[in-house]
Write a structure and sequence with these properties.
- The radius of gyration is 18 Å and the shape is globular.
- Strands 1, 2, 3, 4, 5, 6, 7, 8 and 9 form a 9-stranded mixed beta sheet that branches.
- Helix 5 packs parallel to helix 6, helix 6 runs antiparallel to helix 7 and helix 6 runs parallel beside helix 8.
- The protein starts with a strand and ends in a 7-residue tail after the last helix.
- It is an alpha/beta fold.
- Strand 1, helix 1 and strand 2 form a beta-alpha-beta unit.
Length: 290
């Protein structure tokens, strides 16, 4: 099974990127072909054998990753599986690639694997990095309904069947959009606690447009993928949850602005999931209303 890796960088963490590339090169088994995409920033000083693509502007996380996918042929089909890794992450163990190969070989319907993200100093995994509602035990592997964008492996047949990540999202919720389409096509998603990416603990709100993008993309996610009766239910629940968390006034204003934009702006093609997929999501512990 041939593996490739796509890494997106803004050019502002060169030391971290080199450490990540070193951890990829040290993986057991057949070497992993690596493509580094400079998202609006030139990529320099890469090790021999690492391909680079310099984009003249920042296309956002999904846009940059889609460029990386296509570097491995249409839909990434020159390889069997693509790893997507944050440029400031680090593969903790040398057997991760072999574990990925074994998992996909053992289960032909497994489409996506979400790795466990752990802080390099404490070893702890944040609840938000466990892609399920019951996140108290990050060491428990399970079937899940979404995955972590900067620490995962995707079978390239998934892209060939359901398409890539939604460019319009720029960042936030693009993984769930792909996950729902994959589940609707009968692919499975696993969270694996034994596949570890070390990554510093940082709050997602460090991004200036975090609250705006989260709200806008939440609306787009629903508009694109949910059966019509579930769209107002899903968004109503998230509105109530957001208010219950008592965000600051600036954060709430940004969130409401994004929520409005999500209704007003085009969000790409609408392909509502089958009701049997709604039931599958429910059985997996995350009905598409939360």
């Amino acid at each position: 099974m041939k593996l490739g890796a796509v890494i997106i960088t803004m050019g502002n963490r060169p030391d971290d990127l080199r450490a990540l590339l070193d951890s990829v090169a040290k993986q057991d088994g057949e070497p992993i072909e690596v493509v580094v995409v400079g998202n609006g920033a030139p990529v320099t000083g890469m090790p021999e054998g690492v391909r680079t693509i310099d984009l003249p502007e920042n296309l956002g996380i999904p846009g940059g990753r889609n460029v990386g996918i296509e570097a491995f042929g249409p839909g990434g089909t020159d390889v069997d599986v693509l790893l997507f890794l944050d440029d400031d992450g680090l593969l903790a163990n040398t057997d991760t690639a072999e574990l990925v190969r074994q998992a996909f070989t053992a289960d032909p319907r497994l489409g996506i694997i979400s790795f466990r993200i752990a802080d390099p100093e404490t070893g702890l995994t944040q609840r938000r990095h466990v892609p399920r509602l019951r996140a108290a035990d990050p060491m428990r592997s399970s079937r899940v309904t979404t995955f972590l964008g900067g620490a995962n492996a995707v079978r390239t047949k998934v892209f060939a069947e359901v398409g890539g990540l939604p460019d319009e999202f720029f960042y936030a919720h693009e993984e769930t959009d792909l996950a729902w389409r994959a589940l609707d096509a009968d692919w499975m998603i696993d969270y694996r606690s034994d596949m570890v990416l070390l990554h510093p603990t940082t709050p997602p709100s460090r991004h200036a447009t975090y609250h705006y993008n989260v709200a806008r993309n939440r609306v787009w996610l629903a508009r694109r993928n949910l059966p019509a009766p579930l769209v107002p239910v899903y968004l109503g629940v998230w509105l109530l949850l957001t208010l219950a968390r008592r965000p600051s006034v600036p954060a709430l204003k940004a969130w409401l602005g994004g929520f409005r934009e999500g209704w007003a702006a085009p969000c790409g093609p609408r392909r509502p999931m089958k009701w049997r997929t709604v039931w599958r999501l429910t059985r997996l512990g995350r009905p598409p209303v939360v």
